[in-house]
Structure formats: structure tokens, C-alpha cells
Amino acid sequence: MIRAAIFDMDGLLFDTEVLCCNAWRTIAGNAGYAMPEDLFLSCVGLNSRDTRTRVIREMGENFPYDEFGTEARTWMQSRMEADGPPLKPGGTTLLEFLVQSSIPTALATSTSEKSARWMIERAGFTRYFNAYAFGSEVENGKPAPDIFLLAMKRLGVSNPAECVVFEDSAAGLRAAQSAGMRSVFVPDMVEPPGEVLARVWKRIETLDEAASDEFFQEK
Description:
Layout: E1 4-7, H1 17-30, H2 37-42, H3 48-59, H4 65-80, H5 91-100, E2 105-109, H6 113-123, E3 131-134, H7 146-155, E4 163-167, H8 170-178, E5 182-185, H9 194-197, E6 202-203
Parallel strand pairs: 1-2, 1-4, 2-3, 4-5, 5-6
Helix pairs in contact: 1-4
């Protein structure tokens, strides 16, 4: 029996992964740095701490990660101020369905609490979520299960098998699977490895495909 739903944010609810890559590419490029595409893709789903470690390892100790990170956040927010975060298809439909079905819902994102709350509020999504878990609140980021276990605890659920996690990244899917939860893959920028996909509970192309009682039946 499914008693709770947990959502990632970037690349799942909001089409922000591409926006983030464009921000970093623009800012780094203006400063004379060329950031390889596979570096961006390898950071999808990671928290800021692990992303920082990976980028500096690839780009070198002198790479001004913190300075560029501040500029990138400002660059992205300026583009979302007017119209809000760009929505991925089907998210609102699924979240409305979960509210109507009285299924508690949590957001579990590696994004900083300040940025995540701004995007959720700007999109008008605050009424959909009963609990939140942020990457800064856990010791280990995705693919460790910590953030999903924290979200489950805050929802008041004790059995991981009663939680379904919607994710777009390999790191997120691994985290959900390690937590013992049912993972649903919704494609975005990167196709996860075969061994990760082999363990997903279900795969859908857009979130609204899950907006039915039949979807949440055990299979």
C-alpha cells in the first residue's frame, strides 16, 4: 500500500537543469573557462557540496566555484522572476491528484533550502507539500538514502516500502532504491545506467501519467 509520495525538484517538477547548465556555461565562458558537457551531466542530482567537489576536481583548485555559483544563482533567478520556474509537464496534475486522494507528499531536493522554497512558493506549489527535506540537512547526499529517509520521517511514515519516489536522475533513483522505497523514473537530461533502471518500480514519460488510482496499485 502506498501511503506517501516524495518528489525531487530540479529536472522533475521544474525544467531547471538545462537552465542551470546554461548559467554555468555562460558565466564560466565569459571568464575564459570551458566546462565540458559531461561534467554538467555528472553533477545532475548531486547536492551543492558534492557538486563543488566534483567540479573542482575536474576544473582545478584555482577554479572560482563559489564566485561562479553565486553568479549562476543570480542569473537563474533573474530569468525566473517574471514567469516563475519553468514547469515540467504533468506536475500540477499529479500534485492535484495526490491532494484529492489524501496521499501525503514531501519535497526532497539537493537544492539549497532558500532557493528551493523560493521556487516552490513562486510556482504556487506550497499547498501541495506536507513536508520538506533539503540537502543541507543530511550528512550524505544522493545517492545515499538520507534525504528520502528524512522526508519519510517528516511525513510520519515508518515503512519505506509504503513510499513512492519520483526522480529524474541516477543519483536520486539510487537513493530511493537504497532507502527501500518504490522509485519512479521520469526522464530528463540523462538516461541512468541499466542496472539502475532495472530496479525502478515504474517508468513514465510525464508526471501526469501517475495521476490515477491504478498507478498506485502494487505491481
